[in-house]
Amino acid sequence: MAVSLDDTINHQTHSTLSWLLSRQTFWVFLAAVLACIALTFMTDTFATKNNLFNVTRNFAFVGIVAIGMTVVIISGGIDLSVGSTLCLSAIVTGLVMSAGYPLAVGIALALVAAILVGIVNGVLIAYVGMPPFVVTLGMLSVARSMALVLSNNKMVYQFGPDQALLLQLGGGTTLGIANPLIVLAVMALIAGFVFRWTGWGRHIFAIGGNEQAAVLTGVPVKRIKVGVYVISALTAGIAGVLMTGWLGSVTTNLGTGMELTVIAATVIGGANLAGGVGTAFGAVVGAALIEVIRNSLILLGISTFWQGAFVGSFIVIAVAFDRIRSFRQSD
Amino acid sequence: MTVLELKGISKHFGAIQALNDVSLTIGPGEVVGLMGDNGAGKSTLVKIIAGNFPPSHGTMRVLDREVHFHKPVEARENGIEVVYQDLALCNNLTAAANVFLGRELKRGFGPIRILDYATMYKRAAALFKELKSETRPRDLVKQMSGGQRQAVAIARTRLSDSKIVLMDEPTAAISVRQVAEVLNLIRRLRDQGISVILISHRMPDVFSVCDKIVVLRRGTKVADKRIADSSPEEVTALITGALERA
Questions:
Q1: A2, A199, A206 member nearest B90 (Cβ)
Q2: In chain B, what residues touch A271 (CB-CB under 8 Å)?
Q3: Membrane spanning segments where (chain A) (predicted)?
């Protein structure tokens, strides 16, 4: 009896392969790889150094914000204000630097602005108990309005003495790789580590899975929720600074509608909007796939008007795959 | 020796008298069935013991030491653990993760503290073995049967050196086979000298596993006797008020 009980308790139910095959992220990754291979053969232009460089840099911005969004979605929330926060921090960077301050001050103040946005979101959601959708929808409006107020709706395109540094940071390369892509890789690694190996990471999954259970078992739910929205805003702030450097100018419509692309990337990458499920790698893969779709339409000479149809269908298909699998499991 | 002693516990919420002068003692390894109709004050009493709120009057002693709880954590620190009715489990996490939720084991490299998966799996496996439950630490709770889910929730109470476990309606919504499993889990706790307060509506469960039965009616204790000296008919009469007191 004791032996068989031991066997049962220690029995490994899933092989690594079946675990891999059960991941939405894996299938989306496969789809992205297949799309890349197909494009390599179908066009002469896809697998060129220039095009790959552009593709990877373009999805880096969405990917960075998607990592923050993944944290929020795992905890069972949503952050609609990331596009506006990105714009606000870009405007702050621009204004501070064009006033003659160095790059470090510009970045610091931009990130402070983003963190403030995150704190307001987090406190209203965690301590006042308002729904994340409503709070961040309000912030979507407020943060962009703040960007308009601060800049008086003027384009900023001169960044003072450190202009070259800023342009290098967002638009330059290190060892042939676009800087935003390096930032994305570093952030994805940090997020992956935190999700798997820290108590904080474990707790955001618990909150997304069953918030009441987390409260009853003594998890500091409110504090963690504020942290979650601060991180989301912070990733938007970082992407805002990098985008300023890449574009070389900031207007107040920067990042308009970006929250939807970011949420799409996260969901395609396997995060569940109901909470409790998501990976950092998934966010990156989701963002990459959207960019590959966009890029391929251009290279194949298909009107970019089709982009929304393709990306939208892919969201539905990716989630439908997930549903079909869970139906099979419950049989 | 008594593990838990309540003396003259009363609780009112505004004008509503939820509990009126309830006294109760529980010895080590004793399983007490707490019964009563809806609104009789069972939940209020359990919440006072679990530290959700303090009583209006009366004293509470744990291991002959007077205690005053203001938060559930304080009750837990004094060896009182609760298995909630909905079990407070996260379906998206593994059994081991649920057992250690909020009390994760970590190992450190200097200031960086990372989760100690190996030890948590090993200790969770040992706890499930102790409870004689076929529950795998690495499985997601989502895929588990009602009995296994109970085992996870009960294993959680065995992490610290708990003296007393409160179980709120553990057999309310599970199948017959799983009820037997849960009752066995309660016997395992008893065998290890842990006292259990079982809140239940199900007469057969209480009579098969409890040593003592306490009946509340409209905030007052109307019975407190050995199970051997009572009968389901008597308890039913006490709960409904057909029998005034026993």
A1: A206
A2: none
A3: 26-47, 59-78, 90-117, 124-149, 169-195, 226-248, 260-290, 297-321
Torsion of CA A173, A175, A180, A184, to 10 degrees: 180
Structure tokens at A5: 């009980």
User: HEC profile for A6-54?
Assistant: HHHHHCCCCCHHHHHHCCHHHHHHHHHHHHHHHHHHHCCCCCCHHHHHH
**Contact status of B137 with chain A (Cβ, < 8 Å):** yes
Contacts of A209 in chain B (CB under 8 A): 90-93
Tell me, yes or no, if A323 comes closer than 8 A to chain B by beta carbon: no
Number of Cβ within a 10 Å radius of residue A240: 34
| ipTM of model | 0.81
Inspect the interface and report whether the beta carbons of B156 and A208 lie closer than 8 Å. no
Residue A251 has a CB neighbour count (10 Å cut-off) of 18
Report helix, strand and coil shares of chain B as percent, to nearest 5.
35, 30, 35
Domain boundaries, chain A: 57-300
Sign of the alpha-carbon dihedral angle for A142, A146, A147, A148: positive
Q: What is the DSSP string of B149-216?
A: HHHHHHHHHTSS--SEEEEESTTTTS-HHHHHHHHHHHHHHHHTT-EEEEE-S-HHHHHHH-SEEEEE
Does B76 contact chain A (CB < 8 Å)? yes
**Residue corresponding to tokens 């259990």:** B196
pTM over 0.95: no
pLDDT tens by residue, B139-168 = 888 888 888 888 898 888 888 878 899 988
Cα(A71)–Cα(A269) distance, integer angstroms? 13
CB contact under 8 A, B134 and A5: yes
Smallest Cα distance from A251 to chain B, Å? 41
Residue of higher predicted confidence among A41 and A189: A189
Q: What phi, psi does A154 have (nearest 5°)?
A: -100, 145
Find the CB nearest B90 among A2, A198, A209: A209
d(Cα B92, Cα A274) in Å, to the nearest integer?
11
Cα of B134 to nearest chain A Cα, Å: 6
Residue ranges of domains in chain B: 4-88+162-240
| Local structure of B102: helix, strand or coil | coil
Per-residue pLDDT reduced to its tens digit, A46-91: 888 888 888 888 899 999 999 999 999 999 999 999 999 999 999 9
**Domain B4-88+162-240 listed as CATH 3.30.70.270:** no
Residue type, A318: A
